[in-house]
User: Fold these one by one.
Assistant:
Number 1:
Amino acid sequence: MLNALRPALTRVLTPVADALARTPVTPNAITITGTAGVVAGALWLFPTGHLFAGTMVCTGFVLADLLDGLLARVKGTTGAWGAFLDSTLDRIGDAAVFAGITIWLVRTRQDALAWVALFCLVAGMMVSYAKARAEGLGIPCNVGVAERTERLLITLVAIGLTGLGVPYVLVIGLWALAVLSVVTFGQRVTVVRRGAAAGPVPPVLAGNPGRDHGGEPDDPPAVMNTGAP
């Protein structure tokens, strides 16, 4: 849903990528640093109740992580390894955000909401995996009301506002995210079902129906890190 904003965001970040291209900084270094920042902010600040500060730290590193794909294209260092690394570390960052807020919910005796947060984590992973598996089978799957960008936005806004003392926003945000994640997963399963019925499975996969073909990130190429080391 927010993909329409990516061209504008790309225009804003391209000058930064151009400047970084004149330094020894690599796309993969940005990817790793961004993930490390998100993990540190989420697992250090959220469990200790510093929700707004944690949100600001995570948001800053998430935005910085958007530079990796742009930098890779400017430097001409695109490659499969960078795409794989970006996708994998995105999942780690997402898990850290939900793990951090779940720990805080448990520590503050909000056990029911902690279960909702865990459900959101699992549902988000399933949404991303559904797309990865579909694209591994050669079926386009760029659909869904709540892709990774929307899920992160809902989560971080809800956590940040809770840190500022706004009541009920985390409850509303997490429940809304749970519902939207289920809807998105259903949309992707439906698209893959129709795509599979419309044409044969590629020959390279026909003899390996059980093989796992994951790895594509839940982000479009405009912000995907494809930088080789």
Number 2:
Amino acid sequence: MGQGKRFTPMATVGGLWIFPWLLCFSLLSLAVQARNGDSDDPLRINARSVEANEKTGTAIYLGNVILEQGNLSIRADRLEVRSHQNQTEYVVATGQPVKLRQLSDGQSEEIQAEAKKVEYHVISRKVDMFGDVTLRQGTDLFTGHALHYDINEKRLSATGDDDNDGRIQVIIQPKKPSTDSTPAP
């Protein structure tokens, strides 16, 4: 590289420099339900390898992939990002299982989710989870085969699989009223 503009590479694979701005454009919108300000936090991706094709707008991360941004953490065997004209359109994570963890605004308990495949359709702002889906917040639990969430509409739909007679399972624990143990002055 000449002595022109200087930049810091995020990763190198086979001598190929992957630019941080390219990756940030591609993945910033993953923090769908992130706490306020998380999208301003740096995006960190750790993987055994990455193959990026600027011509097709595809980046594929393989091998114990860990994506972190603010309070969002995604762990997968494979993470693929598809972009067009520097606009992320589609992100898919696959694994045995994919694991998501996040603490959202106004929530005291972490959200934990697992599935074999997680798809994020960036433009339509829809998240799809497939294969042994488990979603947990505190002691509340959801299990099923597929879960579809429309972020704009705040609408969820889910289906079961043949293992559970085609049924989903939801467990919602009653919330205990908070008791303030501080004596009055």
Number 3:
Amino acid sequence: MTKTMLAALAAFALAPQSGAWRASLPAGVEVAEQGGRVTIRNAARVGADLWREGSRALSGTYTVRATLRKLGGRQHEGYGLIFGGSNLGTDSARYSYVMIRGDGGVLVKKRDGAATPVVRDWTTAAAVHPDDAQNRAENLLEVVVGPREVAVHVNGTEVARVPAAELLTSGAVGLRVSHQMQVEVQGFEAGPR
């Protein structure tokens, strides 16, 4: 197969996620969806997890991606993608996540109930568009899950690579938005690659 055919097949496999958005917090998180854009305002004092109700769990080899536009919030608060999720919205939630922030930092962590071990600590990556003077930025974030490794891309550039064994990789996908932030999401899609 040619590279063009492989790229076409990969694009075909990814699909927009459907269903109503659910949030891990009962209050403080507003979600508005219009014209393919989802705006999330987290006014709570803790981070929020968001996922599509009824979305299918993914396993094996797959990709999750979205364009994330930070509309407001402090520079050192992160936002990003969740993958490998189970029991979302409960005290026993389990998932892996990748976050970016306004100073160009990238973080890879996982959650296992109350425990949130750091897998790769905040590291500055030149590919991450930093906040402008109004604390706004736009970045395309992509997580590529494979059988042995998970690669993180920002704006088309690989910024992290982690052994899959260090993460939770089978389960639901979604978003993570830190407290006191507003983020617009476009093109949230996930599927086999």
Number 4:
Amino acid sequence: MPILLSVERAAASDAGLPPTSSAYNGRVTTVRDAEAHDVVAASGLSQTDVVLQGIKSMITSGQLAAGSRLPVEKDLALTLGVSRGSLREGVRALCIMGVLETRQGDGTYVTSLDSSLLLAPMGFMIDMQTAEHRRDLHGVRRILETEAAARAALHITDEQLREAEGILESMHPLVFADPVTDHETIIAHDVAFHHVIATGADNGALAALIDALADRTFVARRSIGEFHEEQVRRAYDEHSAILGALRHHDPDRARLLMSHHLLTVEDFIGEAQGSEQQALR
């Protein structure tokens, strides 16, 4: 079904108008469809929303696939029944969402629709979280990474295991320095280690969610090391134990070890958060 008709007929149905069936040549051709168009306008659906829903429908229905080039602006605006300005607004929004990408001089294309692209905007929401919600974010991170570790124990490759081992080897001299000073690099290695496990879980959506949380919890995790040097070494030992469970492909052990590791981090963040709130009283 043409995109504009599908959007309009859904609105018409909600308003009690009967569906119509007519030949479609890139525009609404019947009085009933024109009435449906009026219902869309009356419902408060903006032209930009029509663009978003229309292009989404084109993708989910198979009219556009990953990597497909969108029709030229004039034709697409006519198909969707919107102005070219509204079409550009909708396309910009979909580019931000990771659904579309504009290639200079070559038009606009549907992206690969990979989970890492489609879930990337979630990072914006996470960035908006205030300090008192830090522990909440880490709680979500713990839930996701605990199951990722269990899945990774079943799916991780030998190459990924070697990568994780290499990261820990690079961390070792930094972690056991006296005193520990390069917290920035240590946390960068920490994030990389957890990323390998997330990708080893063989679930793109899960890995994308974990990466979004990992990037936004960087500062809080670095602060733990700066004020609790013993925790830097303890975390390293916990990482080593997790790696051992992955090598043995033991999902239950990997799950428990990751849960314990992240609960410790979560407790430190909770204590710091409590101290900050107490200081403000």
